[in-house]
Amino acid sequence: MPRSWTHGREDDLAERFREVRALTDALAAPLSDADATVQSMPDASPAKWHLAHVSWFFETFVLRDHVPGYRPFDPHFAYLFNSYYEAEGPRHARPLRGMLTRPTLAEVCAYRRHVDEALMAAMGALPDEARMLVTLGLHHEQQHQELLLTDIQHLLSLNPLEPALFDAPSALPAPVPETLHWIEGREGLVEIGDDGRSGFAFDCEGPRHRTVLHPHALAHRAVTNGEWAGFIEDGGYRTPALWLDEGWAWVRAHDVEAPLYWKRTERGWTRFALDGRRPVNPAAPVTHISFYEADAYARWAGGRLPTEAEWESAAQNVSPVGGTQLDGAYCPRPRAAEGTPALTQMFGDVWEWTGSAYRPHPGFRPAEGAVGEYNGKFMSGQFVLKGGSCATPRGHVRASYRNFFHPHQRWQFTGLRLAKDL
Amino acid sequence: MPRSWTHGREDDLAERFREVRALTDALAAPLSDADATVQSMPDASPAKWHLAHVSWFFETFVLRDHVPGYRPFDPHFAYLFNSYYEAEGPRHARPLRGMLTRPTLAEVCAYRRHVDEALMAAMGALPDEARMLVTLGLHHEQQHQELLLTDIQHLLSLNPLEPALFDAPSALPAPVPETLHWIEGREGLVEIGDDGRSGFAFDCEGPRHRTVLHPHALAHRAVTNGEWAGFIEDGGYRTPALWLDEGWAWVRAHDVEAPLYWKRTERGWTRFALDGRRPVNPAAPVTHISFYEADAYARWAGGRLPTEAEWESAAQNVSPVGGTQLDGAYCPRPRAAEGTPALTQMFGDVWEWTGSAYRPHPGFRPAEGAVGEYNGKFMSGQFVLKGGSCATPRGHVRASYRNFFHPHQRWQFTGLRLAKDL
Amino acid sequence: MPRSWTHGREDDLAERFREVRALTDALAAPLSDADATVQSMPDASPAKWHLAHVSWFFETFVLRDHVPGYRPFDPHFAYLFNSYYEAEGPRHARPLRGMLTRPTLAEVCAYRRHVDEALMAAMGALPDEARMLVTLGLHHEQQHQELLLTDIQHLLSLNPLEPALFDAPSALPAPVPETLHWIEGREGLVEIGDDGRSGFAFDCEGPRHRTVLHPHALAHRAVTNGEWAGFIEDGGYRTPALWLDEGWAWVRAHDVEAPLYWKRTERGWTRFALDGRRPVNPAAPVTHISFYEADAYARWAGGRLPTEAEWESAAQNVSPVGGTQLDGAYCPRPRAAEGTPALTQMFGDVWEWTGSAYRPHPGFRPAEGAVGEYNGKFMSGQFVLKGGSCATPRGHVRASYRNFFHPHQRWQFTGLRLAKDL
Amino acid sequence: MPRSWTHGREDDLAERFREVRALTDALAAPLSDADATVQSMPDASPAKWHLAHVSWFFETFVLRDHVPGYRPFDPHFAYLFNSYYEAEGPRHARPLRGMLTRPTLAEVCAYRRHVDEALMAAMGALPDEARMLVTLGLHHEQQHQELLLTDIQHLLSLNPLEPALFDAPSALPAPVPETLHWIEGREGLVEIGDDGRSGFAFDCEGPRHRTVLHPHALAHRAVTNGEWAGFIEDGGYRTPALWLDEGWAWVRAHDVEAPLYWKRTERGWTRFALDGRRPVNPAAPVTHISFYEADAYARWAGGRLPTEAEWESAAQNVSPVGGTQLDGAYCPRPRAAEGTPALTQMFGDVWEWTGSAYRPHPGFRPAEGAVGEYNGKFMSGQFVLKGGSCATPRGHVRASYRNFFHPHQRWQFTGLRLAKDL
pLDDT band at B2, cuts 50/70/90? Predict the structure, then answer.
């Protein structure tokens, strides 16, 4: 990562646009044409596709719709780089994204510059609606920054050479493992959901609404790799009683024995990340686990996953600019030991699985127009994750933020924090 | 159905045992050995398997564990007829249940009598824990009564001859379609979940807990076949904007154009049920629809699905012994027109999809022992349905009852009731 | 088997019709309605389907086409029981044959009687073309007699109870294993293919034609179970160099370690057959092996599979009414030891895989009309097997007979005889 | 194609080595890193993989085994670039070849130079056995030259942009369609198979052996695109009676309506090739058809496919250095009209499907050592093709050459010539 990037300190949209776009370019800089082209699985997309798709978003919803006389870079790109917007017409099938050896990476970069220049030129004269779409597009691009990293990590992991994309961060002293403390949460009526005060929120984060919390406590930190190794040693992956029925079927169908990217060696567990294969750090938060694994671990540990409301209510008083985020490292780091037990690692480090299905908040209304397909139509079959990860751009996440994945997916930086009933 | 069966009027466990078991036998009476053996799909089970499995439940959890000297009918049956209880050891693979041409239907009936006699002989001396397991077993058997009917209906539907298992009920006058009325629901803090006053509840129905309802209203009746035909005519199955993303993928993958069992003929829509293929009754509740279809319909109609809490709160003041239930007919019937608009068809007729994922109530604890696998381990990937259907034994359902299926499944008697925000 | 049945001694078509039909009924006699209905895999068909399909063949190609005024038993049966005749219109999908719980077994038996009576009544007045179709239909029914047995064996094998359909034959003294002798074959120009002298042949057996044999020898008997056990012990299933590429992929994909129906127990290998699970007889021919296994064994043994021409040329001087055939037992038996080494076990016992792909003989022309779909359209992807098995009706097989299956299929009574170059 | 390359005029192995290797480099020259990396389907391999694999062949079987002190370029490459040689140990799974974004194309080219230099340095001192392996390696590399082109064509065809890799050849005058003439073939005993006089042959081409030809004739030229369009117009793809059973299933499963790469436009049929999408030339040989299609066409045309022996016998008197081969164009061209009817287009243009399964010639023995896995283990499930194509390096093909593919495969330059019985 060439330099720190902090969202929100600038209040000028053009400057934010420049910064977000530059970070994307920086993330893609180490990639070869081939690295940027191959699709490792249907869930993932090629880096080149991410680079182009986020540009298509600006080109379509801002330049085409709000800038008179704009000429698209290439009329075919609408077909190639629409992700899932049915209202925008037919599109290239998702599992075939990796077949696009052309346009080349260099051509996609030229496309990016074309869009950048057109948008920067038009920025001053954009109507408010278009400025809101630019803002949405920037948050959208930040989401793809994280996906770009997790997708390329997945691709490189399938190469027997296990190449490293970045140098390893300088070695950190491994902190002494810390006792887990329980932090009691609020009880009774609370409010969650976007309250309109964070400057930006996706449609699915609102509306603000009341809900009831029952007596509970949250762990003061995330579950660590060392604790996870204990779960493995105790036969966690071989004990059906710990698992949801679908989770157990998933474990058996895929012979799951450890988090994704872990391998057992003679010297202990190792993991693969963008800095290559290295020993697992026992003090760092466990990551690359599915909802099923998180749920089974919690049951083994005598707890449960937090609900979204419990997590969000607790996070409302925590600064979202903490933890390891995208300007730090390419994998979660151990937390610095602290004097007084308090909620830590709520933001950054790892996305925390909650026990809440991703369904609409009461009174939810999708955004108007094609961007209304952004969130609402994915509200089945997925679970909510909260808090961001080491690959989330700093400034992108907040308490009301709702990330969501299917329960078997684990190529994101997913982890967990324990909760329990009181 | 040979005779009416009403649960709950007897307070003698032995009498209830006798009645429930007799109803199962009556339901299976029209089946041939082959009808009772074939498995139409992995989701469904052969009737013979249902007949044996519910007996295995009593044999294992009551007779084996609580009746000294009991000798099992056949030691192989524990392997053949365990459904999914990991704690009870290995078992015959679910998709292969239809390969069991032996034991024959007659042998399975003999197995039932063996268990009946042993349990009736032991009933007087059973300890309380065992009596609770007998009660659980009876409710379990009632669930399989409904599955037996829906599974055999699915099997017969795959036969090009479309044989009828039962005579058609006498023709009913088709009521005039009725305007849909909206009934305003409670707002603010309410209590839902089992309160221990209904005599029996499954573990997942509790604990009783507070939740918040936001301003809303429920339709006073279920959506009808006639209304559904309007959805079809309006292109509902061809309009992606109405569908959840996974729902739209499901529609395209399976070329879904209408509810399961519907066929378009020159004279209009027909449906298949246990009384054969007949014209769709426009005034009857629509049934055999997936969650995806219910959700898309609600969006088309300008509403949404009720949450479980909204539905349950409204149902708490409605008698659960209403509507068409198992002692009536083999498909939902139109409701009798009424003078004053009020909530109707809450119980019986069709299971109503809610918008709530099937997840634990706050503070949920599974039952102790092997029967703890009954509900809790299925709490991912499914949605809650409420209210029972025309194939639910009368007396089996209640406001807190939580049925659950995957969003694509529709061979049960599934329908919907609209809700809307106020 | 209730009585011996020898084909060919009667020259009266009506008498042969009566006998073949009666044997089919006898084979199905031990089956329950469920046994006769379930389909164990797409390759197999339910017994009830076999019983009806062979009747449909007579009803369609003889009664419908050649008997004025014939009224079909049930107009739906043409759809249900056509196997693969495109010229006869649409038909029930093969993998769904097991869904037909109706018509019942009793109804199918009534269908058989209806066809029998109509055909016997019409027999005397049938034109020659129709008499030829009756003859074809009888040979067709004999093929289904064998399939009925192998299909029901496969179905019963999937039942954990492993029920026996027939009593075991009386115990035979296990002969001393015999040295394998090599019998030199003809060399140079030979003639193979149907010569029109056997009274009946399928279209694919002709025309008679010349071919060249190169110096070779055939083993005087089939490979035995004892020899096969040696192949297993020597790591045959774990040595890729012995296998065709597709064979090795098949072994790994299905974890193949032994012939179908074999299980290793503490006391040695057992096999399942229609008389239940019993110890493998080391002197009996090995059976239920795929082409891939036969080919790998031959390579391991330093030989190869015979070509069809080598086998057929050698068999031309051997009586086809030998070996264990359908009037004997339900699995291959050891051969009686003999004084002089000579070709034995050519007919009956096990179908012998040849190294020849099932392709048309030079000058092959399919039969005229719908029955032209009988053989020719299957001439890709399959290998020729020769000689009949313990489940082939005596009198049905001859030197020119061409059986054919895909190289991975092994639920038939398939075995092998070694060949080698000289 | 930068320059003409003619095999065989040099008798110096080093010069031939240099020329073959240079042609491969020239073929890959227009490819980007991404073009060379992506795998379009499991049947195809990335260009980069072809480039490396053929080098691995020389490195392993020549340099490692016969050149003392040779140090491999990268010890991981044996794992990455072994194709299917079980004797050479474990290897990267074929369907994952496209995941190898590293090594880059530049690194693979460096690998090629490393091998080239080591082999050229050692060439003078190689023992005869190693020189034979070099020769084998060159023929092996020529096969991969053809695959490299067909695989990249398939990849580019999946890109909605349909990019052209090469300029179109200069427009050719479309010859007047020519009447099809029948050329009578030899009858009776003939010899086919490698006779050792062509300097090189793969093991599977021998041994030379006698076979019998029955009265027949071959078409004097290949079937043309224009004739194929007639088959389409006549409903060829909708008439089950024309198809083998497996072919018909394949047509329906994949909705096949025309050769691969054909699209119907308002102006008529177009095809995609390495020069982009262009109108179909009615006088050029049809290509990119499966065995199933070839077989169905022949039946429709009243003929059949030639047997391998018929084709090879006829080709023995035809010069194999004719037709459009790799130094010409990237798709088959029309033949120049000729005065006297004679066999033409036997070599080059399109591989011609025969009706012969790919099985061993009588007396076949695989080559010794690991290279014995080259041909023999693929002798099931495939059909023989003869004569080479427009993508076959000139000099590589001969009468006894046996190409082989599965009957559904059609991404090679596959076509057909009619035969008929006399």
Answer: very low
Count of CB atoms situated within 10 Å of the CB of A94: 15
ipTM above 0.90, yes or no: yes
For chain A, the residue count is 422
Element (H, E) at A193: none
Residue type, A135: T
**pTM summary value:** 0.95
> Token digits for A398?
């907040």
Q: Do residue C378 and residue D241 have CB atoms under 8 angstroms apart?
A: no
State how far residue A369 is from chain B, nearest Cα, in angstroms: 11
| D377 closest CB neighbour out of C210, C245, C362 | C245
Distance CA B222, CA B330 (A): 17
Distance CA D115, CA D113 (A): 5
Instruction: Let me know: does B165 contact B30? Beta carbons within 8 Å.
Output: yes
Residues of chain A whose pLDDT is less than 70?
1-11, 168-177, 336-339
CATH class of C182-421: alpha beta
CATH code, C10-157? 1.20.120
Which of D214, D247, D357 minimises the CB distance to C363? D214
End-to-end CA distance of chain D: 43
pLDDT in tens, C64-103: 999 999 999 999 999 999 988 888 889 999 999 999 999 9
For residues C238 and D372, the answer to whether their CB atoms sit within 8 Å is no
Chain C residue closest to B163 (CA)?
C102
pLDDT at D333 over 90: no
In angstroms, the first-to-last Cα distance of chain C is 43
Residue C300 tokens, joined: 């391991």
Instruction: Pick the more confident residue, A137 or C195.
Output: A137
pLDDT in tens, D364-379: 999 888 788 889 999 9
Domain definitions of chain C by residue range: 10-157, 182-421
Query: Chain A contacts of B363, Cβ < 8 Å?
Result: 214, 421
Q: Which residues of A touch D (CB under 8 A)?
A: 32-38, 40, 76, 79-80, 92, 96, 98-105, 155-156, 158-161, 163
**pLDDT single digits (tens) A134-177:** 999 999 999 999 999 999 999 999 999 999 998 866 556 566 66
Smallest Cα distance from B87 to chain A, Å: 8
* Contact present, A and C (at least 3 Cβ pairs less than 8 Å): no
Q: What would you report as the CA-atom Rg of chain B, rounded to the nearest whole angstrom?
A: 21
| Exposure on the CB side of residue A45, measured as CA atoms within 13 A | 23
Chains B and D in direct contact, meaning 3 or more beta-carbon pairs closer than 8 angstroms: no
Distance of alpha carbon C65 from alpha carbon A231, whole angstroms: 73
Interface contact D246-C295, CB threshold 8 A = no
Q: Please judge whether A363 and B214 are an interchain contact, meaning their C-beta atoms are less than 8 angstroms apart.
A: yes
Question: Collapsing DSSP states into helix, strand and coil, what is residue C50?
Answer: helix
